[in-house]
Amino acid sequence: MAAPKSKTLGSGSSGLQHDLFGAADDLPEGFLYQPDLITAQEETELARHLE
Questions:
Q1: How far, in whole angstroms, is CA 20 from its chain's centroid?
Q2: Where are the domains of the chain?
Q3: pLDDT of 19
Q4: Best CA proximity match to 31, nearest among 39, 23, 43
Q5: In whole angstroms, what is the distance from residue 36 CA to residue 45 CA?
């Protein structure tokens, strides 16, 4: 049996990822979103503490 073909985006797709959770403007006053604030290693270590 042949493997199923993978689905691809249509030619009209720009390939950009859309914002899933809304704009950063939706944050409470005083909050500031900073992408890449912590490293991937720091994120992993923090996640271990939450397990």
A1: 8
A2: 27-51
A3: 65
A4: 23
A5: 15
d(CA 51, CA 48): 5
Give the max Cα distance, the chain: 57
Residue 22 has what DSSP assignment?
-
Q: What is the C-alpha to C-alpha distance for residues 10 and 40, in angstroms, rounded to an integer? A: 32
Q: Is 9 left (phi over 0), alpha (psi -120 to 50) or beta?
A: beta
- Does the pLDDT of residue 6 top 70, yes or no? no
State the sign of the Cα–Cα–Cα–Cα dihedral 10, 12, 16, 21.
Answer: negative
Tokens of 40: 């991937």
Residue whose entry in the numeric block shows the structure tokens 């249509």: 10
Tell me the whole-structure pTM to 2 decimals: 0.40
Mean pLDDT of 24-36: 81
